[in-house]
Amino acid sequence: MEYADLVENSNDLIQVVGFDGQLLYVNQMWVDTLGYPRDEACRMNFFNILHPDCHCRCGERVERLRTGESVPRFEVEFITRTGQKIVAEGSISLYREQGEARGIQGFFRDITLRKKTENALREREEQLRTIFESSVAGIAMLAPDGRFLQANPAFCNFLGYSENELKQMKITDVTHPDDIEDTLRRRQIARANRSQSIVCEKRYLRKDGSVFWAQLSSTWFFDPQGQPLYTVPVIQDITARKLAEERIRELAYYDGLTRLPNRQLLHDRLELALAQARRHDRQMALLFLDLDRFKGVNDTLGHAIGDRLLQIAAERLTACLRDNDTVARLGGDEFVILLADFKSSDNLPHVAGKILKALAQPFDLGVREVYISTSIGIALYPDDAEDAGELLRHADMAMYAAKEEGGNGFRFYSSEMNARAVARMDLESNLRRALDEKEFFIEYQPQIDLVSNRMAGLEALVRWRHPQLGVIPPAQFIPLAEETNLILPLGEWVMEQVFLQCCRWHANGLANRQVRVAINVSGRQFDQADFVEMVKRLLQQTGAKAHWFEFEITENVLMKDVQRTIATLRQIRELGIHVAIDDFGTGYSSLSCLKHLPLNRLKIDKSFIADIQTNADDRAIVSATIAMAKRLDLEVTAEGVETEGQYGFVYQRDCDEVQGFYFCRPLPADKVLDACRKHLDES
Question: Which is more confidently placed, 573 or 508?
Fold first, then answer.
């Protein structure tokens, strides 16, 4: 055999096989690779060392060689002495001795490791293809210019396009117009910096024009020279999450009824506007608005109608302002307007006037047209305050000043308003202390029967004797008690004291006088779910009799919820307590409702009595009220009778009773029995 050393030391597996399959020669690499000793190998048949998985077409190849054809390279699988499989690749040719073909010589290279690697890569590719095709995430491949090269089914489903359709498009064709600029910028940055990946959120456009949000993770691939080859974007639909986030943001920063910014968002914008005003040395203004008489709309027409009015008011306020202004709803009927940039404060009255005019227009609420107005307070930065909290507080003070002047107007903040607010806070603090320190006392104003001229009743009037300020009028502390809810413990205390006092009077002779005692019931008291139960409890604890008393309740309280009012009044009447409408004529009661209420008395407000001799309208109102009450079988009491002329007018129109300074000023409890006897003797 020529070149024996070269063949023997070759890295290839070299073998010579006779036409009968007998191995005639194997080289050292063949021995080392397959593990058969040379002497043993030369006693073996070639077909015995083929692995069972090998489907060798040996006979066919031999015949082709014998006919002079060449045989291409092929693979064959051997089994080693230890039973392992070896994959080899090689070629065969005729083996000749002295010019005569004696067998087949083969030259093979062990490719077992390469085949394992190829199989692993193929399996990996199949796995990746399966993942690509079945992934719930959208996966695509894009050329450096953004053209689609591939897209998996999920990507196609997200966008509503087929893969063939996408291959005719660029990524910008399916990107939301507002996000195209950012998309191109990110791609440019990635190419310039050779960034491997980009992670962001963006919006896509579906084929039907709808929008969906996606979480995008995009990976770039570059060649060794740093040139981009392609990019693989992976997207997941996060539309539901984004909608939820937007909803949470709306709940956190926007008013649910009017869709206006709420208190939190106003605070954020106010802080930002203040920072910009400081930086650029500019003015800014805050307008605090409160709708006048809105409570009356809610009480008489219901909260649904009131809510609709607030929505329309919000729309009108927004229409009055520029795009860079902010109008927010703080709650209830309170709104705040932030004017972050204006040329001169001289323009603010024009803005306020525009708002007043817009809100003065009738509100078509379906059931009826309603007219309201608004009160506006204005505070300026830096003139009135330099921080957000103080600016808002001063605008609020100015609004209250506008409301105290009758509403439907505006006021700029002044330092005097702050002094009044401090005094009001002091009064509230003293009011809370006064309950504990027992600084309240009760006086009783007689009510005179105009027929018998005898004392028919008494109205219990609460007073406050402040240790430093002296006696404080009810007009100053009762509204404050209503606002702070102190009216509830105060009202219960008054009722208990009057019940106890009446027991003492009756024990000392008032029982024979048939004098009832009237007690004012506040709206907050009347609205309590356990109001009637509280009255029963106090009657039982004190031993007072229900028929000794009359509850005076204002029109607005009674009209708030007519059906509930009727039910409560019936329970009060069933106890034996009489009921009177106090301050009649100043509220919003309708005659159709009035006739259904279980009442005993109307009390004509003193504001109509005061000018009765000089004001024809007041005379007409008083006359009509008395006549109406008679038709409804109600008794009538005129309040605030202070002159003989006033007395004569109501007397001539058959008014039942009067109370006022003309007959008697309010009396302390220990003077009531004497006054009662005096009126009895004079009659």
Answer: 573
